[in-house]
Amino acid sequence: MTDRAEIKAGRLAPAEYERNFVDVKPSLTPTAALVEASRCHFCYDAPCVAACPTGIDIPQFIAKISTNNVRGAAIEILKENIFGGACARVCPTEVLCEEVCVRMDQEAQPVQIGRLQRYATDFMMTEGGQPFKRGEPTKSKVAIVGAGPAGLSCAHRLSTLGHDVVVFDARSKAGGLNEYGIAAYKMPDNFAQKELAFILDIGGIELRTGQTLGRDVSLAELQEKYDAVFIAVGLGAARNLAVEGGDLKGVLPAVDYISDLRQSTNYQTLPVADKIVVVGGGNTAIDIAAQSKCLGAEHVTIAYRRGPDEMSATQHEQQFAQTNGVVIRHWVTPHEVIGKDGNVAAIELERTQLDENGNAVGTGEYERLDADIIFAAMGQVMMADALATRDDGILAMIEGRISVDETMQTSVAGIYAGGDCVKSGQDLTVQSVQDGKIAAASIDKFLRQ
Amino acid sequence: MADLRSNFVGIKSPNPFWLASAPPTDKAYNVVRAYEAGWGGVVWKTLGEDPPIANVSSRYGAVSYNNQQIAGLSNIELITDRPLQVNLDEIKQVKRDWPDRALVVSLMVPCEEDNWARILKRVEETEADGVELNFGCPHGMSERGMGAAVGQVPEYIEMVARWAKKHTRMPVVVKLTPNVTNILTPARAAKAGGADAVSLINTINSITQVDLDIMAPEPVVNGKGAHGGYCGPAVKPIALCMVGDISRDAECAGLPISGIGGVETWRDAAEFIALGSGPVQICTAAMHHGFRIVEDMIDGLSNWMDQKEYATINAWRGAAVPNYVNWGDLDMNYEIVARIDQDLCIKCGLCHIACEDTSHQAISRAQENGGQYEVIDEECVGCNLCMHVCPVVDCITMEQVQNGKPYTVWADDPRNPDNMKAAE
Predict the structure, then answer these.
(1) Distance (Å) from the alpha carbon of A369 to chain B's nearest alpha carbon
(2) CA distance A413 to A432
(3) Number of structural domains found in chain A
(4) 20 to 30 Å CA-CA from A346: which of A260, A374, B107, B125?
(5) Domain residues for A110?
(6) ipTM computed for the complex
């Protein structure tokens, strides 16, 4: 980062790092899993199934856990969501399946579906073997750009359908946000790579990393060489802090630092500031704030321009950050970043309130927070310049993302897109997996025409 | 506080909670701990002739249900494995130290009058309150012509009961095996033989589960398993039925009963007593949780009796017997339908799918507003299944349909073919 005294590595004792980055929600023991599974009523037409973007038959997999058919439970999950292990760790279940659990009405305590899912999928990864088989070869070849949850979900499904798949990814490792973006304590022990190995184990999927679309490989070329293309590149650049001083040294994109942290093998060597302000209200804001505290930052404040209900980070996530010592300031928006000797020194925030149209507007009241580092966590934008097609066309966009129909087909036949680079639902891992599944089914249909 | 005292064929105890003849009553140490905990009486684990029997290990198989341990327990343990005189000495001492508690001695010897005469004489010397003839154990001893081998032959029951009455002044209780076609036959035989009372049920022939690795019934003894005797909460309904059958039988009229089988709580005990039982005997619940369970049994029964304003147990003993009738005595005109409390409903849909798949298609699911479940009155036959599958207390209740029709039994029902013929 810099050589400033306020920003330094090794703030904590080794044991503290270990404690701070331990699995935030460890796997249930067999006994605990049986007890929890027994709480499921095995609802008919269960609301949790409808609330799951991938439509996992949740009562069925829980019933299988309760009879100790853990392998069967895992297959029940993985056949709908090949990233069942990752989703068990990162899904905001409190606003998905668990929010609508009938036990909420009964006792305000849902069946812990996410943790049961983790119990079953962990079993599969460690001792269940490979349950999926490659389909009868079709001789079709599909290119997938992006080796995150959407791309790999699509690749896996296509492989089960017999198609050959080549997956391109700009980074040096596959996995996408599971590898580079999710908070470390949600996915410790190199889980993203273990899950990747499990997914690729089916065969028929070739991985080409270090291949950036528009630089190393072009869409037109992929159209030429492959029978279909699936674009799952996610989002690109982080939004800048577009205020005066927003370009000062020490104003950083949160996603870059999280990526560094995820790739670090020794947290003690990661420099972290004394005073940090995070601008944003999503999971990235929570993740960078909480992880900064875990690395030993003294003062971490999240500044968000609306109230707690409007934050895209769930209540549960907000509380997690607060429990870890993060201060969340609602109803403030950056006005100016104040520098000293070319470095960030403070941020001037303006208080906000809702106007009659429901927009957050400044009140003209200001306050200043000292800051050594400011993390921008206000979302990322789609980088559309690499999307030129064979006929010098460009894929149609909508609201800054690739436009797709309900089959995930783009404006160009044979090109499909999914994951965060389209707007199919919430920007969640589980939604990306579903996008990939739908796209695979559409591509399969397209290829067999 | 209600008076819980019990007087069962002259055997007095401060409460109706006795420990059944089983491992918890095998020796003075356990029995004293039970008395200290508050148990009203014990039936000492079955004595036999010397040399004592030998046991195997393991001895228990259990059924767990939905993570609850021991919904049912099966054992292949035999009678006491201690020398007769050791037991007799301890019984004498314990009775002397605890004069207010019931102490009944269970017995099992070969089917010869001399053998019974001999052991009864020796038990009498202990000043125990009575004897229970073990004609019930279905495993092990039955292969040697004792236990259930006697209890399954009414003539033997009558004969041995008669011997017992002839050779002792102590009250004689005959413990019955449920492994028979009709429990009334052995009960009537016991009465004919002069027994003062019967106790039931002993354990039921069982294999609790099969070890799928070893491929043998549990409990597995070096690769093999034998059938055991089943007891615990799972057998309570069977025991209640048999106790009720004897209570309402004209031939058995006045025959005192000590109910046994799956009693875990004061409420279970109250149900046995309501069907005519005297003191109830408990074993599995104590083996599962320890003797301290008797505290709530005493306290709970007493509180319930206070609420109901019953001063003594005799005030309500057998109160449910007149209402235990044959199917042919039920009212054919009584109608109920299910009612779903929409405020309590959590929309799990279990009532709907149970009715839809397996019963009368009488609960509809609305497609709109989150899928509300409604009873279709015309289709509902009042079977109660929905009420039982509903996980929410009081959400589904059964409401009587006021049809103004009189109490009519099947014999008088116009749908009875006999009546149809008569009407022609």
Answers:
(1) 47
(2) 21
(3) 3
(4) A260
(5) 38-128
(6) 0.81
Mutate one of A39, A44, A102, A111 to test the B interface: name it (highest B CB count within 10 A). Answer: A44
Average pLDDT, chain B: 96
Q: DSSP string of B47-113?
A: E-PSSPP---S--EEEEEETTEEEEEEEE---S--S-HHHHHHHHHHHHHH-TTSEEEEEE---S-H
B-contacting residues in A 80-109 (Cβ below 8 Å): 102-103, 105-106
Of A38, A43, A66, the CB nearest to B348: A43
My answer on whether A216 and A288 are in the same domain is no
- Phi/psi at A247 (nearest 5 deg)? -105, 10
Q: Residue B337: beta bridge partners?
A: B399
Which of A49, A101, A102 should we substitute to test contact with B (largest number of B Cβ atoms within 10 Å)? Answer: A102
Query: What does the pLDDT look like over B175-209, one tens digit per residue?
Result: 999 999 999 999 999 999 999 999 999 999 999 99
Of the candidates A359, A376, A393, which is a domain's last residue?
A: A376
- Rg of chain B over Cα atoms, rounded to whole angstroms, equals 25
Annotated catalytic sites of B, by residue? 137
* Span B98-130, pLDDT tens digits: 999 999 999 999 999 999 999 999 999 999 999
For residue B66, list chain A residues with Cβ-Cβ distance below 8 A: 38, 66
Helices (H), B255-318: 266-274, 284-289, 293-308
| Three-state SS at A431 | helix
Q: Does A50 touch chain B (CB under 8 A)?
A: no
The pTM assigned to this predicted structure is 0.89
Summarize pLDDT for B336-387 with one digit per residue, the tens: 999 999 999 999 999 999 999 999 999 999 877 667 999 999 999 999 999 9
* Beta pairing partners, B260: B281
Which residue among B348, B352, B371 sits closest to A41, beta carbon to beta carbon? Answer: B348
- Alpha-carbon span B178 to B206, nearest angstrom: 12
pLDDT, average across residues B41-66: 95
Q: Give the CATH number, domain containing residue A197.
A: 3.50.50.60
Span A264-277, average pLDDT: 95
A396 and A350 share a domain? Answer: no
Alpha helices (H) along A11-82 = 14-20, 30-37, 47-51, 58-66, 70-78
Tell me the chain B residues in contact with residue A102 when contact means C-beta distances shorter than 8 Å. 346-348
Q: Test A44 with B392 for CB contact under 8 angstroms.
A: no
List all residues 6 or more positions away from A257 whose beta carbon is below 8 Å from its beta carbon.
A288, A375
pLDDT at residue B401 tops 90: yes
